[in-house]
């Protein structure tokens, strides 16, 4: 009997993705699940893989780490789930037992496939099926009544925004600046709102994305090519600067802007993934006493995110601007990378 195959988007070589026929994945461990993918999305991190900014990415791997679907097969050690359950898939693979997992730092799981492995070092979900290791940790039930579109970003973009807002120590009434109104920045905006800050200021040179940020809860938006963000932030804070800065853009000069617009003793949270090394100019920032928080998302709060979505407190469906069949994935990638046709996020439907 011939092995079943499926279409999948594959990282073929640095600078090249392609659509290939691949075997349908099978259970390899009693802790695995096989999920039939009903919707997957293209992430900026996929572009980082394509262009060589993720050194650990393995050529030949099926990409894709923003996934929802239906459980097709379950390993015997996976409890709390059944075949047929609708689930979101976590961006991170984690054992739940090591030193780091026990402290909620699942990005640093010490298992050989721990951390961000899915769609990077092991086959991901831009395909008809995906194998999810440590499925009891990597899957979350989709609440009744929610659509795939409502929960698609739970395991990655929203997990990132939720993590960033959580570690930034936002207090009620704070002035929070978010650098970047791309998909991750807008998800971060939605999560920051949960902490009831006094003002949320979103900074980005893209007028359309700033308009969307305003619709999604920003109090003020700034195009830094036309207006100095420092002036507005000082006017909101009696000249101090932002209480919290979240750097989600990761482009030229945004890291420098982040620490400059922060008030003394502020928290600067670096969410962005950079293509180039950044400089920390300690002599220039001497006396500001800033706290920097950086790193990969610890995506351990997906159940809480799904509860917020179910209660209507998070809604990121406006980000999903285009849906393509998986068979046209290369067209979808070209659109996403070129940022044509008002694209924000693109989903692939097997």
From TrEMBL:
Keyword Zinc recorded: yes
Pfam families hit by this protein: ADH_N, ADH_zinc_N
Keyword Oxidoreductase in annotation: yes
PROSITE patterns from the UniProt entry: ADH_ZINC
One GO MF term: oxidoreductase activity
Keyword annotations: Metal-binding, Oxidoreductase, Zinc
Domain Alcohol dehydrogenase-like C-terminal: start-end pairs: 183-293
Domain Alcohol dehydrogenase-like N-terminal: 30-135
SUPFAM superfamilies xref list: GroES-like, NAD(P)-binding Rossmann-fold domains
InterPro entries: ADH-like_C, ADH-like_N, ADH_Zn_CS, GroES-like_sf, NAD(P)-bd_dom_sf
Cofactor: Zn(2+)
Family: Belongs to the zinc-containing alcohol dehydrogenase family.
Name this protein carries in UniProt: Enoyl reductase (ER) domain-containing protein
Taxon lineage: Bacteria, Bacillati, Bacillota, Clostridia, Eubacteriales
């Amino acid at each position: 009997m011939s092995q079943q195959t499926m279409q999948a988007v594959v990282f073929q070589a640095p600078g090249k993705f392609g659509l290939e026929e691949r075997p349908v994945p099978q259970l390899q461990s009693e802790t695995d699940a096989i999920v039939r993918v009903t919707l997957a999305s293209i992430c900026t991190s996929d572009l980082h893989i394509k262009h060589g900014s993720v050194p650990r990415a393995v050529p030949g791997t099926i990409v894709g780490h923003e996934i929802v679907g239906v459980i097709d097969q379950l390993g015997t050690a996976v409890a709390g789930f059944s075949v047929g359950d609708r689930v979101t898939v976590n961006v991170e693979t984690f054992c739940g037992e090591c030193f780091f997992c026990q402290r909620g730092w699942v990005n640093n799981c010490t298992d050989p496939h721990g951390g961000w492995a899915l769609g990077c070092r092991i086959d991901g979900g831009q395909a008809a099926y995906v194998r999810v290791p440590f499925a009891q940790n990597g899957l979350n039930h989709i609440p009744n009544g929610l659509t795939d579109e409502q929960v698609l970003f739970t395991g990655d973009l929203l997990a990132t925004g939720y993590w960033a807002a959580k570690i930034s120590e936002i207090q009620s009434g704070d002035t929070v600046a978010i650098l970047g109104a791309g998909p991750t920045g807008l998800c971060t905006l939605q999560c920051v709102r949960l902490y009831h800050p006094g003002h949320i200021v979103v900074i980005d040179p893209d007028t359309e994305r700033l308009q969307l940020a305003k619709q999604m809860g920003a109090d003020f938006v700034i195009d830094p090519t036309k207006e100095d963000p420092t002036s507005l932030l000082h006017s909101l804070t009696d000249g101090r600067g932002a209480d919290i800065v979240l750097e989600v853009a990761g482009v030229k000069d945004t890291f420098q802007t982040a620490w400059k617009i922060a008030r003394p003793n502020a928290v600067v949270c670096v969410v962005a993934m950079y293509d180039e090394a950044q400089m920390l100019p300690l002599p220039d920032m001497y006396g500001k006493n800033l706290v920097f928080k950086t790193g990969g998302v610890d995506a351990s709060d997906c159940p809480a995110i799904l509860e917020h979505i179910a209660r209507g407190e998070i809604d990121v469906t406006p980000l999903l601007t285009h849906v393509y069949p998986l068979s046209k994935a290369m067209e979808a990638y070209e659109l996403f990378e070129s940022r044509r046709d008002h694209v924000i996020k693109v989903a692939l439907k097997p």
